[in-house]
Amino acid sequence: MQNIFFISDTHFGHWFAVWFWNRPFENIKDMNEALISNWNNRIKNDDLVIILGDFFAGSRLFLRFLLKNLNGEKILIKGNHDFKFRYKKLLEEKGVKIYNKMEFFLDNHRFLLTHKPIKKIPEDTINIHGHHHRKLIPSKYQKQKYFNVAVDHNDYEPVSIEEIVKDKFGEKSIDKFHILDQIKYSTLNRRYAIAFA
Q1: Contact, 152 vs 133, CB < 8 A?
Q2: Is 90 exceeded by the pLDDT of residue 86?
Q3: Quick one: which of 180, 156, 151 has its CA closest to 72?
Q4: Which residues of 172-181 are buried (b: 16+ CB within 10 A; e: fewer)?
């Protein structure tokens, strides 16, 4: 059974990432190495990791290096720094599916996966997101409806589905097979996919 992890705002290769968000690294090389190590310490090759935006910057060679050295099956939810020329590289490299957003259900709860938090979400909905580096979530949002998986708030590590569910509902059994089936094969998520003709 695949484990399910979420991560956002790694900003691999973004020259401004260390100083702009005051990340605890000496330089961009140090940051890249730490993020790769933290990723692989949690994610095994047969796990699924959903990247909720702002994944990388750089050349196709750097992208190939990342894809080769980061464990797990990868899905990207497009972020505001994932410009078309970047995610086109990902699509051309194969093996990474890209979406505008995704969703799945756990019992009676709907989980929305987006890069930026959605301002108005219905009852019984949890929005897993990234984007906010300094604040966990702006004060105008109802904190209990959101979970920020940006690395800046999670010790620069991926977060498991179990950790998110425990944070929102306490100890609860999780049918990971059903969640994986929804994420990877539902027609609902297929319509959110980004593809090129």
Answers
A1: yes
A2: no
A3: 180
A4: eebeeeebbe
93 pLDDT higher than 80: no
Q: Are 116 and 80 in contact (CB under 8 A)?
A: yes
State how beta strands 48-51 and 102-106 pair: unpaired
The CATH number of 4-190 is: 3.60.21.10
147 phi and psi, to 5 degrees? -140, 120
Query: Could you tell me what percentage of the chain is helix, strand and coil, using 3-state DSSP and rounding each to the nearest 5?
Result: 35, 20, 45
Tens digit of each residue's pLDDT (9 = 90 or more) over 169-190? 988 889 999 999 999 988 889 8
Of 127, 104, 143, the closest CA to residue 8 belongs to 127
What residue spans define the domains of the chain?
A: 4-190
* Edge-to-edge strand ranges of the sheet holding 109-113: 102-106, 109-113, 125-129, 146-148
For residue 39, the surrounding DSSP H or E stretch is helix 28-42
